[in-house]
Amino acid sequence: MTTTHDPLDISVDISTQEIILAASNHNIPLLRRLFRDNQTPIANPANVKDTDTGFTPLHAAIAACEVDKDTDAAANGVQVNGTEHAAAEEKAQDEGVETVKFLLHEGAIWNDLDLAGETPGCLARRLGLMELYDLMVDAGVRAELLLGRLDGYEALEDEEDEDEEEEGEKEGEVESEETADVDAEIVDAPELVTTTTTTISTDAPTTTTSNTDVTNPRYLDSTLTFQHDRLLDADQNGVMMAWESTIMKKSAQKLLPTPGLRVLNIGHGMGIVDTFLQELSPSEHHIVEAHAEVVAEMKRKGWADKPGVVIHEGRWQDILPGLVGEGVMLDAIYYDTFAESYADFRDFFSEHVIGLLEQEGRWSFFNGMGADRQISYDVYQKVVEMDLFEAGFEVEWEEFEVPKLDGEWDGVRRPYWSIEKYRLPVCKYMD
Ligand SMILES: C[S@@+](CC[C@H](N)C(=O)[O-])C[C@H]1O[C@@H](n2cnc3c(N)ncnc32)[C@H](O)[C@@H]1O
């Protein structure tokens, strides 16, 4: 039997190999020629993929910055001393930096995954190439900010479609290939979000395949399972887990440094942060909770009778304007919801905090955005910092280790935390 090859496929394959090779040789003039080559039948040459490794040109350019001492020595037939090796490494990195900048400028996607599941930034970090890692983080921030702006722009243009958007259907309207990959991240960020590549979420789960199935309305309609160490939704997504207790304790302590303060917590979950807040003797303790089963459980546990506690049943989006209308003023606010988008979160701090928080007050949030991958966590820290700044807040971060998580994820649909350190934010009005 004879096999026929489509000549177009072969030439695409050759072009891909040429581009990947030029990227790993840090050969910018050749890359430029290949990208401009009208004969190269590739629509988006900066984002080709090697079929064996899944490497994009960015992966290839970064991987080539790792200078192996032994290979180096064998190739040159000489003993390479430490100084020579360091010089070779520095040279490779400098060239790598220029190549990566060039590729990003040509529209390379910052967070495409190779077959080992690494983004170019993950690869740089694993190889200890921190200048390249920082470049990739900055590229991620730019892409996410751009999408954030596009998101706002679309909402303004298309107000009639707001309901549809609430159903999590905002994405898909951004057309460029670069933005397509990160689209879901910016749109769906805070609580649980999925993307085609990396995941940005503040707390909980996503599936690796689809993000449309875990929306806030769907979650609020779902039946919950309360266990001693976790709260799960109907799809076994971890809504809240006991391993977060240290985070909740430190957050409560930051928010209520002295007794007698007025606090609002949005999202009761397992009641962990509310328990710590109660221990710090607030004079008023407002709790907003939207899920009927969580509300029933908190009432069963006697939360309605605790000192200073007022339970507000419903979504914060519906409750907060009423509190502002009643003139409620607070010294501290904590935000930790589930299955909400980054746009919701941004709306919360841009539009609602100002009406409720005293001038000297402070607020915090569960910072789990992108916590299943270090680079996503770093990107989102910068994005949120910029958005907070724009909304008039300054933020201080305290970093500490989270416990090692192994068995915790048994029976949970998706581990939503895989990084070593938590960064706890405390936000205040800018001077
Ligand atoms: C991650 S849990 C909070 C965990 C809590 N910090 C603790 O220490 O146990 C999120 C909670 O937010 C609630 N929630 C989700 N969307 C909400 C919304 N729009 N308004 C108010 N509560 C919401 C969920 O029902 C859930 O109880």
UniProtKB/TrEMBL annotation:
<comment type="function">
    <text>S-adenosyl-L-methionine-dependent protein-arginine N-methyltransferase that methylates the delta-nitrogen atom of arginine residues to form N5-methylarginine (type IV) in target proteins. Monomethylates ribosomal protein L12.</text>
</comment>
<keyword id="KW-0489">Methyltransferase</keyword>
<keyword id="KW-0949">S-adenosyl-L-methionine</keyword>
<dbReference type="GO" id="GO:0019702">
    <property type="term" value="F:protein arginine N5-methyltransferase activity"/>
</dbReference>
<comment type="similarity">
    <text>Belongs to the class I-like SAM-binding methyltransferase superfamily. RMT2 methyltransferase family.</text>
</comment>
<dbReference type="InterPro" id="IPR017408">
    <property type="entry name" value="Arginine_N-MeTrfase_2"/>
</dbReference>
<dbReference type="InterPro" id="IPR036770">
    <property type="entry name" value="Ankyrin_rpt-contain_sf"/>
</dbReference>
<feature type="compositionally biased region" description="Acidic residues">
    <location>
        <begin position="154"/>
        <end position="183"/>
    </location>
</feature>
<dbReference type="InterPro" id="IPR029063">
    <property type="entry name" value="SAM-dependent_MTases_sf"/>
</dbReference>
<keyword id="KW-0539">Nucleus</keyword>
<dbReference type="InterPro" id="IPR026480">
    <property type="entry name" value="RMT2_dom"/>
</dbReference>
<feature type="region of interest" description="Disordered">
    <location>
        <begin position="153"/>
        <end position="183"/>
    </location>
</feature>
<dbReference type="InterPro" id="IPR051038">
    <property type="entry name" value="RMT2/GAMT_Mtase"/>
</dbReference>
<comment type="subunit">
    <text>Monomer.</text>
</comment>
<dbReference type="GO" id="GO:0032259">
    <property type="term" value="P:methylation"/>
</dbReference>
<keyword id="KW-0808">Transferase</keyword>
<dbReference type="GO" id="GO:0005737">
    <property type="term" value="C:cytoplasm"/>
</dbReference>
<protein>
    <recommendedName>
        <fullName>Arginine N-methyltransferase 2</fullName>
        <ecNumber>2.1.1.-</ecNumber>
    </recommendedName>
</protein>
<feature type="domain" description="RMT2">
    <location>
        <begin position="209"/>
        <end position="431"/>
    </location>
</feature>
<dbReference type="GO" id="GO:0005634">
    <property type="term" value="C:nucleus"/>
</dbReference>
<keyword id="KW-0963">Cytoplasm</keyword>
<feature type="region of interest" description="Disordered">
    <location>
        <begin position="196"/>
        <end position="217"/>
    </location>
</feature>
